[in-house]
Write a structure and sequence with these properties.
The complex is a heterodimer of chains A (651) and B (321). Chain A has 651 residues and is α/β, with parallel strands linked by helices. In chain A, a hairpin with a 7-residue loop joins strand 8 and strand 9 (267-271). In chain A, strands 7-15-11-12-14-9-8 form a seven-stranded antiparallel sheet, with no helix packed on it. In chain A, strands 2-3-1-4-5-6 form a six-stranded mixed sheet, with helices on both faces. A six-stranded antiparallel barrel of chain A has the order 16-21-18-17-22-23. In chain A, helix 13 (482-495) crosses helix 19 and helix 15 packs parallel to helix 16. Helix content of chain A is 28%, strand content 26%. Chain A folds into four domains: 8-238, 3-Layer(aba) Sandwich (Rossmann fold), CATH 3.40.50.300; 245-331, Elongation Factor Tu (Ef-tu), domain 3, CATH 2.40.30.10; 337-447, Elongation Factor Tu (Ef-tu), domain 3 (Beta Barrel); 458-637, P-loop containing nucleotide triphosphate hydrolases (Rossmann fold, 3-Layer(aba) Sandwich). In chain B, 32% of the residues lie in helices and 13% in strands. Chain B is built from nine helices and ten strands. Chain B has helices spanning 28-46, 58-71, 90-103, 113-117, 122-125, 127-145, 210-220, 284-293, 311-318, and strands at 50-53, 80-83, 107-110, 149-151, 168-171, 199-202, 231-238, 241-244, 259-264, 277-278. In chain B, strands 3-2-1-4-6-5 form a six-stranded mixed sheet. The chains are: A alpha/beta (651), B alpha/beta (321).
Chain lengths: 651, 321
């Protein structure tokens, strides 16, 4: 075991003492490098970052004293300094000896300033690495020299590549523990090279290091005379990063906020994602396509002649064009695409799995739209890069899927612009960020989307039948009596001369939905299809009755959203679980309890009762006949089934 | 790293000009400034009732300056909230009132009525003083005014638990922070959606370091409380801290006699809890020089962090910023 080199506590640059003004000017013109470190749990990430802070003299005397005390108390390096303790922040993590979140660290050398995202190596924390990588210019992939290329190494390299990081460093760590063996090092390089080439990584910089002993971190190690490349710090300080490339692309600025202090001023605020802009430039507002000319670039310190990608600015235009938050300003001659159907890569970040068909919020730059994700085309095994069939995506899964938005989205493929191609998905109920996504291409342009205009419309169909289309949606546990009651209601409607149709759960699952199982994702798709069928039937003028467990509020709400206002009538058939289980008409509860039937509502899959159903029937206190009568009475009392008379205003 | 002229690669034929676009290099501070402004505008666009927590210190000064830039020519479209303890330095109150006047923003000063009624003070009540005046006071003020988003001037480089905090930090209805349940923040996208009872703390200067703050104040000529600069001030030495006798409420212990020393402050808080350092730095470059030459970290002058190293995290979970 090597002992750490002698304490190098914080020491200022000589220029600070000699000429502070000169130092400040130098410091002010430093460039910025944001990087992430990734590796497996014991590869020594925290130790490496602690070492970088320590060797760049960012550790103060008081911090060093605390570190020495902590190292003796809870450190893993005996009497030596445990650098990992410098960066493992939260108390709970420190006690467990692991880093469980993304932490950001700051240090500077004479040439550059650095922001490091420390990302965890635990299998279940892919989401944190993707988060840290999304803002990084460079990734340091750590490998334990004793272990070589591991599953996690492949995973981290793939993720860094997926998120578009072009600068990769392969830091072969713990060289001290393999006796600085060149053969061992080269064996690892060959293995990594093969893998990197396969997944499309064009270039990486390998460096043999020891974070603990300090080899090739800031100074070339005497222990690796066979290595002539840069030290890690030299590389970080000098690597060319392509942050300026964005300025060469056509101008784009997502509009964040419209500044209207008075009637004479209308400023469009935003962060320029691509290109440059000058007063006099012709611009276009997307998605409307209207054009105008930049009048001024307004700042507190006076107007600017030019503004570039990465700057937050306020623009005024020469005309009063309609433009608000969510619009994108673009150079007039080369606007971005607008579409409402895409293919995208999704990185799933929530415990609740993706439910295809359920609407999520999609936020891309300043645009917020509702989006439904279709069943994934495939999931990527991030260890083997294999494509696997998938119906859904769980926590930390990565997959390719198409998605449809309810409004056109202004975008660029992620490969061209991270700001206009990267998005997040937000759960509409919990508000959690459930996924990160990268748009690849539009499946169809929104300009090509037109609803087929029909001469005989839904009103005409309904008129013919002298009725108003309605959807009576029965929901409740299995065995609650939905089908029996719905059947009775239909008979009563028939007796009243109404044309209705009953969609029954079991019947639909024998045909239209026979490809679906009972997972949460399949249940959502089941209801989505039924909703669409019911909508077509109401378009045809029918009164539709449906009898499905339909356990989730979100899907019932989704179907309600498909229908015209007032058309959807939710009927909650309320039966306590014990009663339904006691009835067990189909013997399903018994099977579920025996574990033969998985994902059974009420047993091992939740039922979310309606919060405000139009009708609520309790089948313990009421017989099916009474319940049906109540429903028909309710429906008649609310005049919902009065014959349609031309010229009458409904209801 | 300078860049020469580069080829004009745009396909833009509407606005083709004769001279090729030159790459404009942004400095580190320009990039930080743009990021902070972007964050503030997102909050204003997406929240109903934002507020800026204003503590009168140097970080607050930078945050306020950035807000004025972000919304110029409008004044920042939110009020300033000062959760006061009544024990700040007098010079801080002067600066606070001046900045509210100059920025054209509404200033809300909150005093926890319970702390006031019980006469809670830093001399008799120790940790309870911070807890009641600041932690409880902040919660009261946010609840009372119904603020759903509050800008705070915390930086990730200040303290280990802050290094892991997101820029948008969600608090439950009772203002608690759950470090295990934070939302991932990707690219420049912030998810600000929340339930009615939740609120967000937003830290627009998360990625600034102490040196960045000082340099920016210097470059932008931002007004700061004069206590940051050295001057002869009446002080006593107590428990290893150099305390300033700022008003007649300072209780001198037997044998203590205020001594005039040339001192300045690295951080500002309640005057009986804030240690000064002996210094002759009377200009900003001199402060930066002293800061860079010093060998101890910034927060040493504040009594709050001394309990144990996880104390800030514990306080934050309870609702302290």
């Amino acid at each position: 075991m090597h002992t750490p080199s002698s304490p190098s506590v914080y020491k200022a640059h000589d220029l600070v003492g000699e000429d502070i003004d000169a130092y400040l000017i130098q410091h002010q013109h430093k460039s910025l490098l944001r990087f992430i470190t990734c590796g497996s749990v014991d590869d020594g990430k925290s130790t490496l970052i602690g070492r970088l802070l320590y060797d760049s003299k960012m550790i103060f005397e008081d911090q060093l004293a605390a570190l020495e005390a902590d190292s003796k108390r809870i450190g893993t390096q005996g009497q030596n300094i445990d650098f990992a303790l410098l960066v493992d922040g939260l108390a709970a993590e420190r006690e467990q000896g692991i880093t469980i979140d993304v932490a950001y660290r700051f240090f500077a050398t004479e040439r550059r300033k650095f922001i490091v995202a420390d990302t965890p190596g635990h299998e279940q924390y892919t989401r944190n690495m993707v988060t840290g990588a999304s803002t990084a210019d460079l990734a340091v992939i750590l490998i334990d020299a004793r272990k070589g290329v591991l599953t996690q190494t492949r995973r981290h390299s793939y993720l860094a590549h997926l998120i578009g990081i072009e600068n990769l460093v392969l830091a072969v760590n713990k060289m001290d523990l393999v006796g600085y063996d060149q053969a061992k090092y080269e064996e690892i390089l060959v293995a990594y090279q093969d893998f990197a080439h396969n997944i499309g990584i064009k270039h990486f910089v390998p460096i043999p290091i020891s974070g603990l002993a300090g080899d090739n971190i800031t100074t070339a190690s005497v222990n690796t005379p066979w290595y002539s490349g840069p030290t890690l710090m030299q590389h970080l300080e000098t690597v060319e990063i392509d942050i300026s490339a964005a300025q060469l692309r056509p101008f784009r600025m997502p509009v964040q906020w419209v500044n209207r202090p008075n009637l004479d001023f209308r400023g469009f605020c935003g962060l320029i994602s691509d290109g440059q802009i000058r007063p006099g430039d012709a611009i276009r507002v997307l998605p409307s396509g209207r054009t105008s000319t930049v009048a001024r670039i307004v700042t507190l310190d006076g107007d600017l002649d030019v503004a570039v990608a990465g700057q937050s600015i306020t623009l005024t235009l020469t005309d009063e064009v309609d433009c608000s938050r969510g619009d994108v300003l673009s150079i007039a001659g080369d606007p971005p695409e607008v579409a409402d159907q895409f293919e995208a890569t999704l990185v799933w970040m929530a415990d609740e799995e993706l439910l295809p068909g359920r609407p999520y919020w999609l936020k891309l730059a300043t645009q917020l739209v509702s989006a439904t994700i279709h069943s994934p085309k495939y999931q990527i095994n991030v260890n083997t890069m294999e494509h696997l069939a998938a119906k859904t995506l769980g926590l930390n899964a990565i997959g390719i899927a198409s998605l449809t938005t309810d409004k056109p989205v202004v975008f660029q493929p992620y490969e061209q612009s991270h700001d206009l191609g990267g998005f997040i998905l937000i759960d509409k109920i919990s508000n959690a960020t459930v996924a990160a996504g990268m748009l690849h291409f539009a499946l169809r342009r929104s300009s090509n989307v037109h609803w087929q205009a029909l001469d005989i419309d839904r009103d005409a169909h309904a008129r013919l039948k002298h009725q108003q289309p309605r959807l009576l949606w029965f929901t409740g546990l299995s065995g609650s009596g939905k089908s029996s009651i719905a059947n009775l209601v239909q008979r009563k409607l028939y007796a009243l001369g109404k044309h209705s149709f009953l969609l029954d759960g079991d019947n639909i699952r024998h045909g239209l939905n026979k490809d679906l199982g009972f997972t949460d994702a399949d249940r959502v798709e089941n209801i989505r299809r039924i909703g669409e069928v019911a909508k077509l039937m109401t378009d045809a003028g029918l009164i539709v009755l449906t009898a499905f467990i339909s356990p989730f509020r979100a899907e019932r709400r989704m179907v309600r959203g498909l229908m015209q206002a007032g058309e959807f009538i939710e009927i909650y058939v309320e039966t306590p679980l014990e009663v339904a289980e006691q009835r067990d008409v189909k013997g399903l509860y018994k099977k579920a309890r025996a574990g033969v039937l998985k994902n059974f509502t009420g047993i091992d899959s939740p039922y979310e009762p309606p919060e405000a159903p139009e009708i609520r029937v309790n089948t313990v206190a009421t017989s099916a006949e009474q319940a049906a009568e109540e429903i028909v009475t309710y429906v008649l009392r609310h005049s919902l089934l009065a014959p349609y008379v031309d010229g009458d205003n409904w209801p | 790293m300078g860049h020469g002229p580069v080829l004009h690669l745009r396909r833009d034929d509407v606005n083709m000009d004769a001279t090729p676009n030159k790459i404009v290099s942004l400095t580190h501070l320009q990039r930080l400034e743009s990021e902070s402004i972007h964050i503030m505008r997102e909050v204003v666009a997406e929240s109903e009732r934002p507020v800026m927590l204003y503590s009168v210190g140097k970080d607050s000064a930078v945050m306020l300056h950035l807000a004025r830039k972000a919304f110029h020519p409008s004044p920042p479209p939110f009020p300033l909230l000062h959760v006061d303890t009544t024990w700040k330095f007098r010079a801080m109150y002067d600066m606070r009132d001046r900045m509210a006047r100059d920025s054209g923003m509404q200033l809300i000063v909150h005093h926890n009525p319970e702390a006031k009624a019980r006469g809670i003070n830093p001399f008799d009540h120790g940790a309870l003083h911070t807890d009641l005046w600041k932690t409880e006071g902040l919660k009261q003020a946010l609840t009372q005014h119904g603020f759903d988003a509050a800008f705070g001037g915390a930086r990730r480089d200040e303290e280990k638990s802050r290094a892991k905090e997101r820029i948008f930090s969600f608090r439950s209805a009772n203002h608690r922070w759950d470090p295990k349940n934070q939302r991932p923040e990707l690219w420049h996208i912030y998810n600000s959606r929340k339930t009615k009872s939740e609120s967000i703390r937003v830290f627009p200067i998360s990625n600034w370091t102490e040196l960045d703050i000082w340099q920016y104040i210097h470059l932008e000529n931002i007004p700061i409380v004069p206590l940051y600069l050295a001057a002869p001030r009446p002080t006593v030495e107590r428990d290893g801290l150099l305390l300033m006798v700022d008003d007649e409420r300072f209780r001198l212990r037997p044998g203590e006699v205020p001594v005039t020393r040339s001192v300045r402050f690295r951080t500002l808080g309640c005057y009986p809890l804030t240690g000064a350092i002996e210094s002759t730095a009377t200009t900003l470059p001199q402060i930066i020089q002293e800061m860079l030459l010093t060998t101890t970290s910034e927060r040493q002058g504040r009594a709050i962090d001394h309990d144990h190293s996880a104390s800030m995290e514990t306080k934050k979970q309870a609702g302290y910023f």
